[in-house]
Specification:
8 strands, alpha/beta, TIM Barrel
Length: about 210
C-alpha cells in the first residue's frame, strides 16, 4: 500500500498558478491570519470565541450556510465579537464533484442566508470546501466579486491520527509572514483544535506575530 505524506503547505510554485486566489496575507509584516471552517455549531464555536477573546485575537470564520440558518444567534455572535465571516457554501459542497450551476446556486444560497441573518455588508470572502474548485466555478466566483481564500498552513486538526501536539508542530514549522492558518470549528476537529489553539496563539505571540482578519 502506498502512503502519501500529508500536505501542510502548498508549494509556492503551485500557488503562482492561481495568482488571483489568496494564499497568504500581508507578506511585509510579522502577521498571521487564523481562519476557522465549517461552523458555526453550538458544541464548538462558543468555546473558540471564548479562547479568542481570552487572548484578544480576531479571526475569520468561513461558515456553512446550513449551520448559519440553524444557529443564527451564534452566527451573529461571531460577528458581534469582532470577527470576520466568509462564505463556505450552503451544503459544504465539493467543487470537483458538483456541476458549476449547482455550485453557484449553493454559494448564492449561502450568501443570501448570511445577509439575511447577519444584516451586515458582505465580506465577499469565499473558501471552497476541501480547497478545490473547477475552473468555471472559480471564474464565476471571481467575476461576481468574491475573493477566493485558500491557505498557507493546513493544521490537519480534523485528522484522527493527529494529536494536539502534532497540530502545534505543524503550525510551528510552517508559519511565516502573512500565513493564513486553517482550523475547523467542527465536531471532527474539536478535540485537537480546542487543545492546540491556545498553545498556537501563545507560541505565535511569543514569536512576535500580530493576528489579523482577512
Amino acid at each position: 500500500m502506498i502512503h502519501f505524506r500529508p500536505l501542510f503547505q502548498i508549494p509556492s510554485c503551485l500557488q503562482h498558478l492561481y495568482r488571483k486566489v489568496l494564499w497568504r496575507g500581508d507578506l511585509s509584516c510579522r502577521c498571521v491570519y487564523l481562519t476557522f471552517d465549517d461552523g458555526p455549531i453550538p458544541d464548538v464555536t462558543p468555546t473558540v470565541l471564548d479562547i479568542l477573546d481570552q487572548y484578544r485575537v480576531k479571526a475569520t470564520f468561513f461558515c456553512v450556510g446550513d449551520n448559519v440558518a440553524r444557529y443564527p444567534d451564534l452566527a451573529r455572535e461571531v460577528l458581534s465579537r469582532g470577527h470576520q465571516i466568509g462564505n463556505h457554501t450552503y451544503h459544504h459542497l465539493r467543487g470537483l464533484q458538483s456541476t458549476t450551476s449547482t455550485y453557484v446556486a449553493d454559494t448564492e444560497q449561502c450568501e443570501t442566508t448570511l445577509q439575511s441573518v447577519l444584516h451586515a455588508p458582505s465580506s465577499h470572502l469565499f473558501r471552497p470546501p476541501h480547497g478545490r474548485t473547477r475552473y468555471a466555478q472559480r471564474r464565476w466566483l471571481m467575476s461576481h466579486g468574491y475573493q477566493v481564500v485558500l491557505w498557507d498552513v493546513l493544521t490537519h486538526d480534523y485528522n484522527p491520527s493527529y494529536t494536539p501536539a502534532d497540530v502545534l508542530s505543524v503550525v510551528q514549522r510552517y508559519t511565516r509572514n502573512g500565513s493564513i492558518i486553517v482550523f475547523h470549528d467542527s465536531i471532527k476537529a474539536a478535540d485537537n483544535m480546542l487543545s492546540a489553539l491556545p498553545q498556537v496563539i501563545e507560541m505565535l505571540k511569543k514569536q512576535g506575530y500580530e493576528f489579523r482578519t482577512l
